[in-house]
Amino acid sequence: MSAIEFNPHGPFPLISDDEHTYQEAQEHSVVIDQWLGFKTAEVEQELLKSQSYNVQADANIPVNFWRGLPVQALQTPYTEIRQILELLKPEDGQHIVDLGCGYGRMAFVVGKHYPGVKFTGYELVAERVNEGNRILKNFDYPLTAIKTQDLTAPQFVPVEADYYFIFDFGSAPAVDKTLEDLKKIAKNRSIQVVARGRYIRHRIFQSHPWLSEINEPQVFDHFTIFKS
User: What domains can be seen in the chain, in order of their start residue?
Assistant: First the structure.
């Protein structure tokens, strides 16, 4: 096992977990972020000073803005994103939605390796969305979009899609609201949900049998793929 070498001609390599450690995947992602031109550390420092994130769309649902955490704790490594997409094998014309996309890392992997697949990322913090879109403008990925959105807003429902990616983004009420939104979508079409993180996976197994018990989930170390 050795560190992941960065190749600008193939920045998002498809490699198995046994070829690297999670820390090496994170370190590799730092190099990619720098290569892309992200200024995530500066954005996160400004967020710590900001007083703009004290209001939530629904007073009954606590919101977590995840300020003050290391950037790598907020984002999925690029190699893991590539691995997830390889498992899903999305086809041209299909749609992937990232619910809580941070700086939009998945947009770059989808744009590079699945240019015929539509990608929509939703992120609560506008500064992260603006930074992601600043970098995205350097690439010709017309089917990718990163948008500012509070997933807990009562009137908000995610756009209908084939695949949904959810990280541990908030409280139980916030997660449940999003999963109930997806349940409504799943009544009209089959969807796959990639749940990343222990809490979101636990919540699905515990309280959302419509997703966990219809089809056998694919369980991996850091994420689980559910199919309605």
Answer: 49-227 (3.40.50.150)
